[in-house]
Amino acid sequence: MSTEMVFFSLILFVISVLGLLAGLIMKNKPLVRIFGTLIAASVLYFVTIFAIFVSDMMGLDELFGTFYYLIPVVSSILIFALIFLNIWKLFKKKARVVISISLAGAIGLSSIGVMGYVFYDWSLPIDTTEGEMPLYRYEPFAENTRAADLDSESTLKLAGKFPAFDDESMLILTEKLPILDGATALYPLYSSFARANYPVGDYDVYDIEYIEDTDRIIANSPVICQSTDSAFTSLINGDTDIAFLMGISKEQQERADALGVELTLTPIGREAFVFFVNKRNKIDGVSSEDIRRIYTGEMTNWKEAGGGNAVIRAYQRPEGSGSQTRLIEIMDGKQVVAPETEVYSSMMGMYEVVAGYKNYKNSLGYSFLYYIRDMAGENKIKFLTIDGVAPTVETIASGEYPFINDFYAVTVSNRSDLDPIKAENIEKFILWMQSEQGQSLVSKTGYVPLKNLE
Fold first, then answer.
1. What SS3 class is residue 278?
2. Which of 80, 120, 146, 320 is most buried as measured by Cβ atoms within 10 A of its Cβ?
3. φ and ψ at 115, to 5 degrees?
4. 373: domain range?
5. What is the pLDDT of residues 193-220, one digit of tens each?
6. Which of 171, 173, 187 has the alpha carbon at shortest distance from 223?
């Protein structure tokens, strides 16, 4: 329930108070009775709306589902009945007939509208992601996996050097295999890399043990996904071997330097950083400078960018996330305004709030093209053109789209604890990612391979 509804009911309350005062001053008993009833009804309606607003903040709308939104409708009907019964005798017989017919028609039309809304709400698919992308769909060897396949056998054949997965003990032999981790948006890609080169097994993307009161982890699967910042932390701590990231932030580089960790960022593909709005938003495109002005707080209304007259709700991600790091990069040194309540810990959370049909249509979010187009689904949102250019595979490949960046396989170059065979496998694996086969998987997954940009 929006704050606008609370303010509306508050205004209704104030108007009723003024009407009651007018009636008292005029000393007209029927008028006093009418406005006295109105003020009582307004108080009830205000309390109802305010209670719904508070319960929204507590998340009770998720508990009661669609019927939750019928509460103000039912409340309005009951309050109207209160007014109707209290002032009914003030009208003559003919007037009562006219009023009754009018009310019956109004209630009938309102009921049709409400039920239409309810059935529409029921027709929508139920989302079960709870703000997170279900990555198990992309696990390397899961049944009906969405991970991409090579057209032929891999030339690297890391999988052929080690025993296959032990079905009885459900243990994965990772002693010589690089442990892979990374950004959510890149998991489908490096899962495909593992599918081409690792032993067949049940590689649970979430099979991670977090060591209490530390930043350390134990990966029970050689292919996991913790999201950008956690993946970076595990890499510099030596708990994983390759982190697939869209880049690293200044703060992350400082953390690595403090530990004496030397990083190597090997580009393996390219991607577009995109901005999107709800499909109901009239805006279709903005300029690069518009984006900078929005996220510095200089531009606050869509009409300034050629859209409708609506306040811009510009959502953000936490610092250290891949998308927030990229936003900071494109700001050209300008300071990003950090909102207190409109920061979403996951990309899916940001997508859902912008895409939601119950949400404000004036919202703005950002992410990487592949994540929204192929993982989340773009049917509920609209990508904005930037400087007149839409984000597509073609405009990324040509370099025409303005917000393009490489993504990387990040490794630690000065580790001394690595098994020599594992160190050799890491080096060969990364070279393979840049080979024709590796780049074909980049393309099949939905990203733009490096070779298209040479």
1. strand
2. 320
3. -65, -35
4. 271-404
5. 999 999 888 899 999 999 988 989 999 9
6. 187
